[in-house]
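User: I'm putting together a small comparison set for a docking exercise, and I want a reference complex before I start. The sequence is below, and the ligand is uridine-5'-diphosphate. Could you produce the 3D structure with the ligand included, as structure tokens?
Assistant: Of course. I'll restate your input first, then give the structure tokens for the complex.
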Amino acid sequence: MKALVTGGAGFIGSHLSEALLKKKWKVYVIDNLSTGNIENIRHLENSKLFHFHIDDVTNEKVMKRLIKKVDVVFHLAAAVGVKYILDNPLDSIRTNVRGTEIVLELANSFGKKKVFLASTSEIYGKNRGDRASFKETDDRLLGSTTRWRWSYSCTKALDEFLSLAYYREKKLPVTIARFFNTCGPRQTGRYGMVIPRFIKQALLNNPITVYGDGEQTRCFLYIDDAIKAITGLVDEKKAVGEIFNIGNPRGISILELAKRIKKFTKSKSRIDFVPYEKAYEKGFEDMRHRKPDISKIQSFIKFSPKVEIDELLKRTVKYLER
Ligand code: UDP
């Protein structure tokens, strides 16, 4: 089998490429290295089955050449990270909308076996102050368009609609996955992600910056579990035309996360509370709780997260220490 992994030098993309190579797939990666990192795939470059192209998914000519060659397209390239979205609003919208349109257009015209679209739990917005979990069919609740955070949710919702439209009208076999917070080695804190940020702060004995009151909760899935979910879904015929949550339903508050990271790194860091306005921008809206309902994916494939939060943190600390 041959795959194109867009965004393959990113955190999830590089782990996915590695897993596909282990299964003896031929893997083509396209990444513009905007948030991805060449170091994430350096160790794959020795493999004869691996081909890396530094380019943008909006470059139609290159995409045409690559998509033509492969059986399956894993479309992971996207502007990601709350901080990155706020700092690069135009580029984020363009990459997420135009990039996906090009992938789907070309995959359809070449009659590809499968397209896997990476979507996000941001889709659900700020619903669920009540700690209940999100089901794929739940309503979405977004703030005003003057709150930039929500642009990401809108672009990915459009990506989902586009994919489903290609499936309904053209029979393009598409599977959509909404990733909840995912973490592990190779994730960078540069674009906002809380765990690598806290670990880096702790290792340097700098203040750990908890935004808001720290009582907001998130559920973190370890990268290896995420990869198992992706490959499982792509192998499952019945998953075509469907949307799935991918996440770990067990949650933790951000303050508790800061305390555990401080403990595991034996850090002397203070824990500082930073108002959202100062951390991001005026009027920034966060979601209080975000938890996946994973019953749908579990009814399609064998999936149950194996690595829990403490082990996830220890493995990520070990990576960042190096
Ligand atoms: N957060 C924090 N300090 C940081 C970065 C993030 O307290 O340095 C908080 C953020 O406000 C959110 C949670 O951690 O409530 C998770 O943030 P992240 O950006 O990792 O993912 P999100 O769930 O917001 O997409």
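Residues 149-170 form the longest helix (22 residues). Residues 277 and 284 are 6 Å apart (CA to CA).
User: Thanks, that's exactly what I needed.
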